[in-house]
Amino acid sequence: MDNHGFYRTVENLYNQHESPAPDQQGGDASVKQTKRLIEMIEGQSGFDWLDDGFVYYFPGPRKGCLSAWSLRAIADELDRRNKQHEDEIEEYFKEHLKGEEDERESRERFDD
User: Fold this and answer.
1) Which run of H or of E encompasses 48?
2) DSSP-assigned beta bridge partners for residue 57
3) Is 46 exposed, middle or buried (0-12, 13-18, 19+ CB in 10 A)?
C-alpha cells in the first residue's frame, strides 16, 4: 500500500519507474517492456503456486488469483471492447494519409 492507503497497480509501478507501458491493442509489447512488467509482478510476489501445482497471478492481497486462461479471457474482452475505438483511429489515419498522398501527387504533377 502507498502512504494514502491505496494498493499500487502495475500502471502505478510503471509511472514510478518512468517506464513506458506496453503498447496498446494492435501491437506487441517490446521484449524489454515485457521483461520489466514480469520483474515488477515478481517483485510484488504476484506469482504463486496453488495446491493444484499450477502457478497463478495474484493481483493483490486478499484479492484472489487469476489463471492464465482468466488473463487471456480478460485480454480478449479488452480487445473486444476497444475494437470500435481502434477502428475509428485506423479510419482517421487512413483518411488523413490518403489526403496527404493526394496532395503530394498533385504537387508532383504541378512541379513536372
Assistant:
1) strand 47-49
2) 47, 66
3) middle
Name the residue range of residue 83's domain. 68-112
What's the burial of 14, exposed, middle or buried (CB within 10 Å: 0-12/13-18/19+)?
middle
The tens digit of pLDDT for each residue in 66-105 reads 999 999 999 999 999 999 999 999 999 888 887 677 777 7
Q: Which amino acid is at 68?
A: A
C-alpha distances in Å from residue 84, one per residue of 14, 24, 25, 73, 81: 27, 14, 12, 18, 7
Q: Are 56 and 67 in contact (CB under 8 A)?
A: yes
- Are 33 and 87 in the same domain? no
Judge if 86 and 58 occupy the same domain. no
Residue 58 near residue 64 (C-beta atoms within 8 A): yes
Same domain, 80 and 52: no
Local confidence band at 108 (pLDDT 50, 70, 90 cut-offs): confident
